[in-house]
């Protein structure tokens, strides 16, 4: 199914152009960065993600989240992809990421396919940005022109991942602050939280709302009582918190505006979701209502806010490097160990790019 869709996309609609009042700045990046050096990169990313979705309908959500968790920690530089080594304190071991982030294998599959077509050209940071956009398209959302030209970091920062990534228990003040330090405003916060229209959360991230909100021994009063019953079935009180619930109980694998309609019914899963609507007098309530009423508006703002998030402190020009293996910096000898343990087909690609 994927090859037909890919070729159609390449012909007519790889990029969705949008007009309107939402302004977009590409910063130092450029959607046509690989036009000459790797013209098929978008189609290649799309095909690999499309194939991955066939066996895992959640993977699009996981890839969107990877880009977010990359960008909020020393910028969109693929630092999240660096594995633990003697010199790398991996962000994958930070609390928001450990036993939680997914899709590293799919990113590596994309990288292998892209290296085959255009060796040593496309950064892992750009692959994350493209994979996020393609994931939204393939789950019934709208795409956008992805600004490109990021380069990959030679460092990672686990401490910074712990401090910069907002917690699901955050209140609205904390959420706004976490976005503001990244240059993202309240509209960006509400629009980007709409990514919780697909994917899953472990019970541990919202269990307190079901059984013991703010240590009151009672459920969160802003949690719909019917939804509360559903969630207590998914997350037993004496459980270890490892069960999964859909972030959007209505259309769990579809990119749509239902997240906002859920918030209006007190059917938001995380505290950080529901506070956007339930904090009394907050300026976020009107924004939630506007997206709940108009999916076109949400899609336009989501695209603009993703571009803005994708512009956070990129490495460009001669900064950083183009990694040959996304999990290791080029100078890291651990990479050679990885080469030795990789499949033969990957092996050839890696060796040819050394
Ligand atoms: C506003 C602050 C945010 C908080 C507190 C937050 C927190 C969380 C948590 C706790 C999970 C579940 C993780 C797990 O249980 O393994 C999650 C999942 C997810 N988040 Fe967020 N998030 C936020 C914003 C965002 C943003 C800005 C995006 C992307 C633009 C995003 C995309 C996702 C996606 C797609 C999933 C599902 C991932 C999967 O199923 O693999 N989140 N988030
Ligand atoms: C990098 O670490 C992840 C776990 O965080 C692991 O699944 C993956 O296999 C590692 N990649 C390589 C190439 O060693
Ligand atoms: C990680 O980030 C913190 C906070 O910005 C900084 O103080 C620290 O030096 C960084 N560590 C590394 C290894 O870059
Ligand atoms: C949000 O949490 C902070 C602590 O991080 C607290 O100081 C503040 O009072 C809380 N704000 C609201 C509105 O509850
Ligand atoms: C709620 O949490 C507090 C603090 O962890 C604890 O002391 C209390 O016993 C809990 N209440 C219930 C009903 O679990
Ligand atoms: C709770 O959710 C149901 C649908 O799931 C909805 O019909 C009901 O109105 C909601 N209750 C409140 C108080 O929003
Ligand atoms: C929905 O939002 C779009 C984009 O801003 C706008 O063009 C359209 O008029 C809106 N539709 C309604 C019914 O308000």
TrEMBL record:
Signal peptide (residue range): 1-19
Alphabetized UniProt keyword annotations: Calcium, Disulfide bond, Glycoprotein, Heme, Hydrogen peroxide, Iron, Metal-binding, Oxidoreductase, Peroxidase, Secreted, Signal
Superkingdom, natural source: Eukaryota
Annotated site residues (Transition state stabilizer) in this chain: 65
Transmembrane segments: none
GO MF: heme binding; lactoperoxidase activity; metal ion binding
Residues at which heme b binds: 196
PANTHER family listed in its UniProt record: PEROXIDASE 22-RELATED (PTHR31388:SF270), PEROXIDASE 72-RELATED (PTHR31388)
Protein name per Swiss-Prot or TrEMBL: Peroxidase
Organism: Acacia crassicarpa
